Amino acid sequence: MKVVLFCGGYGTRMQSGPGDVPKPMQLVGPRPLLWHVMRYYAYFGHRDFVLCLGYGAHHIKEFFLGYEESASNDFVLHDGVVDLLSTDISDWRITFVHTGINSPIGERLRRVRAYLEGEEMFLANYADVLTDAPLPDIIDRFAASDAGASMMIVPPPATFHCVELGSAGLVSGITPVSEMPLWANGGYFALRQEVFEHLPENGDLVADGCAELAKRGRLLAYPHRGYWRPTDTIKERIALNEAYARGEKPWALWENDRVPVG
C-alpha cells in the first residue's frame, strides 16, 4: 500500500532557534523523525511513499538525495571501498511533491491525489508521531469493513488532571486525563478513495474529511493503548532523544530484523 506522509508544516512549537528545518527532520538518534516513521511502515512491507512537502522541503530532498546508509547500518571498509552489511532504503520508492507552504492537511492530500490513482486503499500519517501499533491488524480491520477511513485513536497524552466538583465547591475526585474515558486522534490513518469526496478546497483531513465520514457512519476507529509518542514540542523531542540514548525504542520494531543486501 502507498503511504502518504504530511511533512510540510511549520512545526512552530518545535523550533528551538533560527533556520527552517521542518519538524519531521528533527533528529532522533542519528536519523530524522521522518525516517523513523518511514522505517516503521517499511518494516511491515509498505515502501512506496508520497511525501507532501512544504516548509523546509529542501532539507527533506537533500537528506534522501545524499542518503548515507553507513549512518545506521554496519559495514566493512577495505581499500577505500564501503561494503554494507545491511541497508535501509534501497527498496523504497519515494515521490516528492510540493503541496504548498500554508496548505492544511486535507489540501495537501488533495494535491497528491493523482499519485494515488488506482489505489483502493492507502495509508497516511502526520510524520511526527512514533508508535509500536500493529499495522497489519489496523489494515486488516479496515479492509474487512466498508468504512471510508480508519483512524488510530489513543488515550490523551496530556499530563493534566480532571477535577470533579461536589457540593459547596468541594472536590470529589481527581483523575488523570489519560485515565478518563476519552480518546484522541493518533495520527495514523488508513483511507479509501471515498475520503476525497469529503475534502473541500483548503480543507482539513480530520475536521472536514473524517468528521463528515463520522456523521455518515463511515469512520472506523482503531484503539491503541500501546506505545505512542508525539513530538509537538521541544520538551517532547528531548524526552524522546533521552529515551533513545538509553536504548528505549519501542517503535523501532525493525532493529532485530535487518534487511540484507541482495
TrEMBL record:
For this UniProt record, give its keywords in alphabetical order, as a comma-separated list. Answer: Nucleotidyltransferase, Transferase
Q: Any keyword Nucleotidyltransferase?
A: yes
- Show the SUPFAM superfamilies listed in the entry: Nucleotide-diphospho-sugar transferases
**Could you tell me which InterPro entries the record lists for this protein?**
G1P_cyt_trans-like, NTP_transferase_dom, Nucleotide-diphossugar_trans
Q: Where is the Nucleotidyl transferase domain?
A: 3-243
Q: Write down the superkingdom of origin.
A: Bacteria
A molecular function GO annotation: nucleotidyltransferase activity
Q: What is this protein called?
A: Glucose-1-phosphate cytidylyltransferase
Which species does this protein come from? Amycolatopsis ultiminotia
Taxonomic lineage is:
Bacteria, Bacillati, Actinomycetota, Actinomycetes, Pseudonocardiales
